[in-house]
């Protein structure tokens, strides 16, 4: 539950100095939408961009790519390079 919490230790009737912390509860992010971008690429093809609509309440995005594809992003868009050993597979994104 959100709020301010104070803790005091008690040892044989002797109290410690209180320690206070504030707890904030953030809303869950909304579900991710459909990823847009090329669905057919060639091995060795570079700079292919994929995007998902901005996800309400998401603070970052985690992209997963097929083997042989590289790219990093913590936003709603990623640029992917397909190596010469890239294989077919799914691109997924989850919100954090």
Structure, described:
The chain is mainly β and 96 residues long. The chain has no helices and nine strands. The protein has a three-stranded antiparallel β-sheet, with no helix packed on it. The chain has a two-stranded antiparallel sheet with strand order 1-4. Strands 2-3 form a two-stranded antiparallel ribbon. Strand 7 and strand 8 (77-82) form a beta hairpin. The chain starts with a strand and ends with a strand.
Give a quick rundown of the structure:
The chain is mainly beta. The protein contains no helices and nine strands.
Main structural class: mainly beta
Please mark out the parts with pLDDT under 50 across 5 or more consecutive residues, or reply none: none
What is the string of helix and strand elements? EEEEEEEEE
Spatial shape = elongated
Query: What topology, given as strand order, has the largest sheet?
Result: 5-8-7
Instruction: Look at the structure and give the mean pLDDT.
Output: 93
Q: What characterizes the major β-sheet? A: 3 strands, antiparallel
Number of strands: 9
How far apart are the first and last residues' alpha carbons, in Å? 20 Å
- Beta-strand percent range: 35-45%
Helix content: under 10%
DSSP summary: helix tally: 0
Radius of gyration: 23 Å
């Amino acid at each position: 539950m959100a709020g301010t919490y104070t803790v005091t230790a008690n040892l044989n009737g002797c109290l410690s100095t209180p320690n206070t912390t504030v707890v904030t509860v953030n809303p869950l992010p909304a579900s991710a939408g459909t990823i847009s971008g090329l669905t057919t690429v060639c091995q060795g093809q570079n700079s292919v961009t994929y995007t998902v609509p901005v996800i309400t309440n998401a603070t970052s995005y985690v992209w997963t790519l097929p083997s042989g594809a590289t790219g990093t992003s913590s936003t709603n868009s990623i640029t992917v390079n397909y190596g010469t050993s890239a294989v077919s597979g799914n691109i997924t994104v989850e919100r954090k």
